[in-house]
């Protein structure tokens, strides 16, 4: 147990990095860590470096695994399943795709156009930006493994239930016609060498970094601001755990924003440190990643308004319920 704790602290929390950054702030910059400027600078440098190190390693590893499961192979696997197993597989597939909500929509179109049930494709669409293996590791590094695993569990449950409800509503008629008539190519996959897979994985790392670096910097910057400059009393009065409106407010506030989970985690970390309920912070994070306004605008080009409204309604209610549950049982996780 002690060995596991030490590995967790050094490899995930990167206590060694926090100590190095502390030396940098105190000795090189001559700032007091207890001051607002010193504390903000330490928070920013430490979190940015930690997130990028973990992100690079995780995306490379996940992409290497993904190279064995190209879209056509994945489609064939899903096409052999039905009912709950198909929805669960679609949701689990989303957990191994490091895509933001906007990047998931082209795959959603491809899967739907290939004839997969709407319930399966929506289970994928919900889980892909919401729960991925990289976010699990980052959540564990910020909070702990109990929070990370509980988050994954409820995220998959939401994806499966959401997809199931949309499937039972039989809303295929609300898909735009071009989606159902998208050409599907079934090209035999060539055997990739290790060098090919490494090249693919590295390209994915570069692509993800290019897409998220700005949001990581902005998110960590906001987290540093909340952590060291905003009064705890002000935040608690607005989003405190005892405020009945905190979870709905955090969920609705997150929808207009756009960021990957990697950019919202530092904000959630800072909010919890200021006394905001764990469920409230996670609800904000989930709303930003799963229901960002740009992704909804893109999705509107693919589905008609009744289906879009059903999708948003199911996910919003699900996120709020998850937030309330996390707030109620946070004492078991932290």
TrEMBL record:
Claim: Membrane is one of the keywords in the record: yes
One cellular-component annotation, GO: plasma membrane
Subcellular location(s) per record: Cell membrane
Spans through the membrane: 43-65, 86-113, 133-166, 212-230, 250-268, 275-299, 305-333
Domain of life: Bacteria
Keyword NADP: no
Leader sequence segment: none
Topology in membrane: Multi-pass membrane protein
UniProt KW keywords: Cell membrane, Membrane, Transmembrane, Transmembrane helix
InterPro entries, alphabetized: DUF318, UPF0718_permease
Similarity-based family: Belongs to the UPF0718 family.
Protein name: Permease
């Amino acid at each position: 147990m002690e060995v596991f704790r030490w590995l967790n602290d050094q490899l995930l929390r990167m206590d060694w990095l926090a100590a190095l950054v502390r030396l940098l702030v105190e000795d090189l910059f001559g700032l007091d860590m207890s001051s607002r400027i010193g504390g903000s600078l330490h928070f920013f440098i430490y979190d940015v470096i930690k997130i990028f190190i973990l992100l690079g390693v995780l995306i490379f590893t996940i992409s290497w695994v993904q190279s064995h499961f190209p879209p056509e192979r994945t489609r064939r696997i899903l096409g052999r399943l039905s009912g709950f197993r198909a929805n669960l597989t679609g949701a689990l597939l989303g957990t191994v795709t490091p895509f933001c909500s906007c990047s998931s929509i082209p795959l959603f179109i491809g899967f739907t156009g290939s004839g997969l049930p709407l319930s399966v494709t929506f289970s994928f669409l919900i889980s892909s930006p919401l729960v991925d293996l990289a976010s699990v590791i980052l959540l564990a590094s910020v909070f702990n493994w109990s929070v990370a695993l509980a988050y994954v569990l409820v995220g998959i449950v939401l994806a499966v239930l959401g997809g199931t409800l949309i499937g039972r509503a039989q809303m295929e008629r609300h898909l735009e016609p071009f989606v159902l008539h998208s050409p599907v190519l079934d090209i035999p996959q060539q055997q990739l060498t290790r060098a090919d897979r490494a090249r693919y994985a590295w390209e994915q790392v570069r692509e993800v970094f290019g897409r998220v670096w700005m949001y990581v910097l902005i998110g960590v910057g906001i987290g540093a601001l909340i952590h060291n400059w905003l009064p705890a009393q002000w935040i608690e009065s607005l989003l405190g755990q005892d405020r009945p409106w905190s979870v709905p407010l955090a969920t609705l506030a997150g929808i207009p924003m756009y960021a990957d989970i990697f950019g919202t985690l530092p904000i959630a970390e800072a909010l919890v440190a200021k006394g905001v309920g764990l469920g409230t912070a996670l609800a904000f994070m989930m709303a930003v990643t799963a229901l960002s306004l740009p992704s909804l605008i893109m999705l509107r080009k693919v589905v008609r308004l009744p289906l879009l409204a059903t999708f948003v309604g199911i996910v919003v209610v699900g996120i709020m319920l998850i937030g309330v549950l996390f707030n109620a049982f946070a004492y078991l996780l932290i």
